[in-house]
TrEMBL record, chains A, B:
Ranges in coiled-coil conformation: none
Organism encoding this protein: Brevibacillus ruminantium
Protein name: Ornithine cyclodeaminase family protein
Positions of transmembrane segments: none
Length: 351, 351
């Protein structure tokens, strides 16, 4: 019988703070760059095309002695059933013995590690003096992108939020986001007064719904796209020199958020070359032969390690195509397991 | 928050009886034959070639409204660490909503469903009057093969057990097998006196360690191979007309238990054509061009459904190449979950 820890979403929300998750996701990227991480082939199945699917992403982190998988279900019809559309679980195992360490609710881990990716993109590729963040998308992921960027970029003092379908939703988002961020921070740093104070102050900035996306794009220093769009929402001509763009949304064939003509001439980084080329924001640009995969300067881990320069001038456009990789989830989940063990949180079952 | 049931090995040992598992595995085979089951691509990773690996087998059973996966780790060095070499978990989800139903210890489920496969091979392909079962291999899987065959074949009254490396181990196995079977039956039918009685009586037969494998093969009616062999242990010339052979061991490239020359002229069935051809007992025969995949008459589900005849004469040799498919585990695990819910067994966690 082997002890096995089960951790639900509520516990994870209490345990994970964005600063620690950013560290873990950076570690995931650098382990990958050091060949101490392997992604296994993706398993993807559509139950009903466009309505319900599932995928299993798995991998091994030699550098952290863990392997495991994340299984995510997406069922579009769940809303009517009062169930979440996206449901995920992450299982972590010890790669020295194969023993399962635990299973965790996957939603909050995914939100946090995806937010962290956006923060890391800005941290390593945006101009340090960047003041204005434009977030494309006002859905579930947007608050995590904002929090991670605020944690990573000390000069950001204005956040514009764009919803391509509805100005009203962006407006409603902006009305509530400060309270939401403060609640997240209060939970995340509930026993660390100083950090809670620091990050709470960080949220005392301007949140503005976007009416004119062209105009706001012309003013933004950092753009993060986090939508499920299949058509570009940002045109090349709108983007000013020196802008950094992180593309979060594209993670399967056919998804696209930015004008593919932005890639030629930009300094482009990815989390995983294979995924970016096949299912990331780069997919369309490559399929349309606007660029070849050689446009990719490096995986972001190389920049974090200092092996490859990130931004090289104040006027170039940098792009980080983040598709999401299982090892981000695994390292984040392993952090939760370690903290939960210290706190005696979660349910321990003898398997 | 979603309720999620965690079930450990001990509970599974109490819940699962071989008769019910045979029914579930037959259902898995027939759903597959009716195109109501899909196997997803296998994920396989070697941590250290020949020393440690893991695989993720997953699939969907439309006919049973479930999907899920089994993750199995094999770490050869675990024995020194007082840990099992093989460790597995099975996760079952509802395929109408994507909601995880539970996670279960995988070892006993695997043993039971693999035993059931052997029983089903004999039930549908052996001569009904078969009296003598020869089991090749005296390891962990052997008792399950024996129990399933005794449950399925009422005339079997002698079981010979062969260990290619050590007669002593086969001898020790035979000394203890009756007690072991009675214990399993007592657990499995602990609240069903009549069945417990019936099956306990069924074990009052002869168990004989094999000294001369050629001689015993010539006498056997049913042969089940359950080893990790990479060289044939049964030669073609030894096998008498009318014998049924179920090959359990071969489930990855390079494994082989019976003389590949047994396939031409035999009536051959498999659990899954792709797996048998690529990693099953058939692999070597096909690679050596002794037969083509056309030697496969059908998947066993077709026989269970009565769409394809199994054995057609008392003198032909029948072979069932069982490689093991995820949907066997999923249906068996789902049975455990249903029973556990009735009994209030296992640990329920809100995810």
């Amino acid at each position: 019988m082997l002890p096995f820890r089960v951790i639900n979403q509520k516990t994870i929300e209490q345990i994970l703070d964005m600063k620690s998750v950013i560290e873990k996701v950076e570690q995931a990227y650098t382990l990958k760059a050091q060949q101490e991480a392997t992604l296994f082939p993706l398993v993807f199945h559509e139950f009903e095309p466009g309505k319900a699917d599932m995928d299993i992403k798995s991998g091994h982190l030699t550098g952290a002695n863990i392997f495991g998988m994340k299984l995510v279900s997406w069922f579009g019809g769940n809303t009517e059933k009062n169930l979440p559309q996206l449901i995920g679980t992450v299982m972590v195992l010890d790669s020295r013995t194969g023993v399962p360490k635990g299973i965790l609710s996957g939603e909050h881990i995914t939100c946090m590690r995806t937010g962290a990716a956006g923060g890391i993109g800005a941290k390593y590729l945006a101009r340090p003096e960047s003041e204005h963040l434009l977030v494309i998308g006002s859905g579930h992921q947007a608050p995590f992108q904002i929090l991670a960027t605020l944690v990573s970029m000390e000069n950001v003092k204005k956040v514009s939020v764009y919803n391509a379908r509805s100005y009203e939703r962006a407006e409603a988002f902006c009305e509530k986001i400060q309270e939401k961020l403060l609640n997240m921070i209060a939970l995340q740093f509930n026993d660390q007064d100083e950090l809670r104070e620091t990050y709470s102050k960080r949220c005392q900035i301007e949140f503005v719904p976007v009416e004119n996306i062209e105009q706001t794009t012309r003013e933004a220093d950092i753009i993060i796209t986090a939508t499920s769009a299949r058509q570009p929402l940002i045109q090349k001509d709108w983007v000013k020199p020196g802008t950094h763009i992180t593309c979060i949304g594209a993670d399967m064939e056919g998804k696209q958020e930015i004008d593919e003509r932005l890639f030629p001439g930009a300094r482009v980084f990815v989390d995983d070359v294979t995924q970016s080329v096949n299912v990331g924001e780069l997919e369309t640009a490559i399929k349309k032969a606007i660029v070849t995969p050689e446009v990719i300067v490096a995986e972001i881990g190389e920049v974090i390690l200092g092996r490859v320069a990130g931004r090289q001038s104040a006027v170039e456009i940098t792009i980080f195509d983040s598709t999401g990789i299982a090892i981000q989830d695994l390292l984040t989940a392993d952090l939760v397991l370690a903290e939960a063990e210290k706190l005696g949180a979660g349910t321990v079952v003898e398997l």
